[in-house]
Amino acid sequence: MISVSDLTPAELAALLHFHADAGVDWLLEEQPVDRFVEFEAMRAARRGSQATQPRAESTAPAARPQADRRQAAKPAAPQPAPPRAAPAIPDEQAVEQARFAAESARSLGELKTAIEAFNGCNLKNSARSTIFASGTQEGRIMVIGPMPSADDDREGAPFAGRAGQLLDRMLAAIGLRRDEILLTNVIPWRPPGNRAPSPPEIEICRPFIERQIALAEPKAVLLLGNFTARHFFGGAETIHGLRGQWREIDILGRTVPAMASLHPQELLTAPINKRLAWNDLLAFKNYITAEILG
Asked: First and final CA of the chain: distance in angstroms?
């Protein structure tokens, strides 16, 4: 065992630094200390303080009811009334408002303003854009789709995205461009999740599409998609039973020749039906060549 007397001053200094870093406060005491007895005394003192703590808290419950009673006696501060939700417009009233707004418009520009200001259809609450007719009425040709797609809603124009690009190619195949005709939808707002519009929503929007047709005064209308064809032709047939046939649709007391065909989105889903759409386009071209362009 190494004795302290055997260490050099530098080694003693290093040893003292080591003990100090280790937390040793002293090396020797004058009197021996029994650390076990000291530890037991500390434990007994801690248990005694814990035993007296509940007695100190036992007086709290007796004091609390008085404080609670005093607090209850104070009048509660008046709370602001919650804001009232806007009253829902009954469907019949909304239809009447839509009809009045549509009939008041004397031009497509006025009708666009009226539709954008109309708040009687709940579809407008979830839609990003109000989709109105684009193109020109000078060509006297209208192409009508069902309702805005997500691309339409995002871009604010009918027949946008891939379906719109395919429609452009379909029109070009029969010598037409979208800026030479009028493109629109039956429903001006995209239903959430691309769901089908409810019957009340359809009836609320009906005056707007009918007024668009009446103001545009087309000589031929191409109806695209199952929903659009049923909307104007009635009945429950599918687009395959309604397509390719010229029919007269009654728009505010005026008859307009119309033909139904498949929507471009349906052709993207089932390309085999493109031959059916091509036959419809040829029949449409023959009619407008003889009745409008000729």
From this structure: 124
Which pLDDT band, with edges at 50, 70 and 90, does 14 fall under? low
pTM here?
0.70
Is 14 within the bounds of a domain? no
Q: Is residue 75's pLDDT more than 70?
A: no
Going from the C-alpha of 132 to that of each of 6, 68, 116, 183, 215, the distances in angstroms are: 103, 64, 9, 8, 13
Is residue 219 one of the residues assigned to a domain? Answer: yes
CATH of the domain at 265: 3.40.470.10
23 lies in some domain? no
pLDDT, position 62: 47
Residue 80 to residue 83: CA distance in whole angstroms: 9
Residue found under tokens 């009635």 = 234
β-sheet bridge partners, residue 249: 256
